[in-house]
Design brief:
Strands 4-1-5-6-7 form a five-stranded mixed sheet. It has a two-stranded antiparallel ribbon with strand order 2-3. With about 130 residues, it is of the alpha+beta class. A hairpin with a 2-residue loop joins β2 and β3. It is globular.
Length: about 130
């Protein structure tokens, strides 16, 4: 095995269009995460225009090739920044993208909107 195959990565998608009555939420969350994850190896941070979970802002998604994808809502920069950073690091380190429920930050236990199987699994007729 080479060093690159031992390395597991993750993409953290942040809905930058999420907002509340007080104003934009997603842009601020994305900016704060950019500062926190700037030097995080193997974690890519991407803005996304909409995750269509407008009733549960702010919403993020954790995704990687060959892993389950999680969409998590009800997150704020003020209360959940550390939770998001912890969750994406745990996700990146997991081989299939499944972090045991008890190891997830509380906001990621309560805030899951959906979990989607890896595309290869979804295409497998024997599933």
């Amino acid at each position: 095995m080479n060093a690159e195959s031992d390395f597991t990565s993750a993409t953290l998608l942040v809905c930058v269009t999420c907002k509340s009555d007080e104003g934009p939420l997603g842009q601020g969350l994305f900016a704060a995460l950019g500062e926190r994850l700037a030097a995080a190896p193997g974690i890519v941070l991407r803005p996304i225009e909409c995750l269509s979970v407008c009733k549960r802002p702010c919403t993020v998604a954790l995704a990687a090739l060959g892993k389950w994808t999680y969409v998590v809502g009800d997150l704020t920069r003020e209360s959940h920044l550390d939770d998001i950073v912890t969750a994406v690091r745990l996700y990146a380190a997991s081989p299939a993208g499944i972090v045991p429920w008890r190891e997830r930050p509380l906001s990621f236990r309560k805030g899951v909107v959906s979990r989607t199987p890896p595309l290869a699994l979804a295409q497998d007729p024997l599933g």
